[in-house]
Amino acid sequence: MNKKCLGLLLVLLVTSTAGMFAQRATSLRINEVLITNETNFQDDYGVHSPWIEIFNTSYASVDLKGCFLTNDKNNPKKYPIPKGDVLTLISPRQHALFWADDKPQRGTFHINFTLDPTVDNYIALYDSNGETLIDEVTIPANTLGVDQSYARVTDGGDEWEVRGNNGKYVTPSTNNVTLDKNEKIEKFKEHDASGVGMSITAMSVVFVALILLYICFKIVGNVSMRLMRKKEMEAKGVTSITEAKDKKLGRTSGEVFAAIAMALHEMQNDVHDVEETVLTISKVKRTYSPWSSKIYTLRQTPIRKR
Amino acid sequence: MGDFLNLIADNMQTFWSYTGFANATPGHFIMILVGIFFIYLAISKEFEPMLLIPIGFGILIGNIPFNMEAGLQVGIYEQGSVLNILYQGVTSGWYPPLIFLGIGAMTDFSALISNPKLLLIGAAAQFGIFGAYMIALAMGFEPNQAGAIGIIGGADGPTAIFLSSKLAPNLMGAIAVSAYSYMALVPVIQPPIMRLLTTKKERVMRMRPPRAVSHTEKVIFPIAGLLLTCFLVPSGLPLLGMLFFGNLLKESGVTRRLAETARGPLIDTITILLGVTVGASTQASEFLTVNSVKIFLLGALSFIIATASGVLFVKIFNLILSKKNRINPLIGNAGVSAVPDSARISQILGLEYDPTNYLLMHAMGPNVAGVIGSAVAAGVLLGFLN
Fold first, then answer.
1. Which residues are CB-neighbours of B49 under 8 A, at least 6 positions away?
2. Could you tell me if residue B5 is inside a domain?
3. What is the domain range of residue B357?
């Protein structure tokens, strides 16, 4: 009983912890920042404000609610992203855009600080506990001109670059690299038009996977056969391995093969007894389980109240 | 009175425009004939009835003509219709892993565990997939489409559906029907190739009987199988994970009820839904295209290549095996993972040449190895081409 309780407790612990990790926002990244906004993207009030783009790098939806945005290393909880707004849920590989206009009364996505191009701008995103740093970036002073952004080269990637007015587009709320084709497929079309490369690679992987299984079960099989022989030697009082080999201990007996062959022969030739016409009653031992007990599934007889 | 008669006439006209007769095209009748042919094959010839009956009837359901502009929400491609909702299991790819769960729970891997070298035959038969892949590329298909078509050669319906739903959803109907059709036609396709590639002496070759496999080995197999294959090809996880999980339910010996559900009511339910919806997805307007014809052609080729490569691999493999460990090339075809049909073909053909030579147990080894091999191949294709 104690073991059962302990097992149940462990399962509950593992599942609840797994759930906690699944909901964490660690896959979010600060993806692009624009400080001096004169003609770039407008907010929902028609105002050009600095903005910060957050990107969900995972292939699952992540909710930003309860996380914190800050520009102050000593105050990680500066802007708590409000709970109760469905728009804080970011779909897989999608973005959320925050307006750094110091007007949080304008809505969830308007934060309580702004950005200044003449000083170093530190921006950080903290998890809902206010302690776990998810991502941070510092944009050096005077790095960005008007309508220029500081962006990751690829969404969620490690490298940053300055964009705007230099042939590279500023991309608020959209991918930093526009995906207009599947690079993998293009690569195959260019370098492996006949498919030989793919076939060799894939067949090698298939063979390696099954060879690994082969090696594994060759070893497991040998160990198992030795153990079986050892057990049979003990049972039959044989001590010499040579004698055990001679007597073919640990191997399936000829009677077993004969029975299998007979069964196959009967199946193949429809040789069968007249069982269909014989009623066979065999007692089946059923272990009691409350899951299968009919007593719990029966409806109680209604009692007429007078 | 005149207005009333006009109303009746209008009603009749509207009614007529909604009927199948008014909306029928030659394509619908062709597909209905195909559906009836599938049902005929299933009942009369007993070719994979569990698959061909649901698919055949699904083809009939999917090809009842109706007014597609009326917004009746009856067609499988109309969002929100009952058929469309059931079809989600195919398009989002969750029916196939559940089928694999059931397959795992009903498969006995003993033959494979007792003679693990048979695994390599299962690997060799996957040449069918990549042979068809190369031919599909030569025929002008995109690499992702060619990969989805090639998997027909794996002879594994759920795998074909799973991969095509990810790589080429627009070709899924044709690929699924092609895969299941050729799986049903294994008794027709394989024997001539097997006879062609083997000598009479090879066909009567007797194999060493398999050894008894312990319970521990059977329990280790799904765990080791999952870890070894999925660490190598994580993209095969949905299929391989469920296959080995189902097998552990069976072999653990302590989850009898779960195993029985997986290999009984669960797989039956999913097979019914999968078969009917795949059949219904062959709506003539979407299905009758030149590409579908090409896919059927490529499907046949992939089965032929897979069978031939399995048989030839055994012949080559025998060159390096000791005499007592040699393998009868007639079980090479069983690497094509149409379980258990291709293994049954080995048995029948073996008995034809030697009525006392039972190859079924031996053939089940490469047969189930083929299931693993095709799932690994699907994982590789998914990883490269998605």
1. B42, B43
2. no
3. 90-385
Question: Is B284 a domain residue?
Answer: yes
Question: Residue A272: which of A280, A263, A281 has the closest Cα?
Answer: A263
DSSP letter, residue A101: B
Residue of A216, A15, A264, A25 lying closest to A133 (CA atoms): A25
Name the residue of chain A whose CA is nearest to B368's CA: A210
**Within a domain: residue B15?**
no
End-to-end CA distance of chain B: 66
Q: Do B372 and A213 touch (CB under 8 A)?
A: yes
Digit-by-digit pLDDT tens for chain A (306 residues) are: 456 666 656 655 554 444 444 446 888 999 999 999 988 889 989 999 999 999 999 888 999 999 999 999 999 999 999 998 999 999 988 999 999 999 999 999 999 999 988 899 999 999 988 889 999 999 998 888 888 999 999 898 999 999 887 778 888 988 888 777 777 788 888 888 888 999 999 999 999 999 999 999 899 888 888 888 888 888 878 777 777 777 776 666 777 778 877 777 777 666 655 555 556 666 666 666 666 666 666 666 777 776
| Interface predicted TM-score of the whole assembly (ipTM), two decimals | 0.86
Stretch (H or E) spanning A134: strand A133-139
Domain count, chain B: 1
Residue that has been written with the tokens 């312990």 in this structure: B214
Q: Strands of A68-70's sheet, edge to edge?
A: A79-80, A68-70, A121-126, A133-139
Inter-CA distances, B142 with A190, B46, B220, Å: 12, 36, 41
Q: What domains can you pick out in chain A, each with its CATH number? A: 23-180 (2.60.40.1260), 198-271 (no CATH)
What is the distance of C-alpha A279 from the center of its chain? 53
Question: Interior CA angle at A169 toward A167 and A173, to 5°?
Answer: 175
Using CB atoms and an 8 Å cut-off, which of residues 209-228 of chain B contact chain A? 209-214, 216-217, 220-221, 224-225, 228
Domain-embedded: residue B372: yes
Instruction: Determine the residue of chain A that is closest to B134 in CA distance.
Output: A195
pTM of the model: 0.77
DSSP state of B264: I
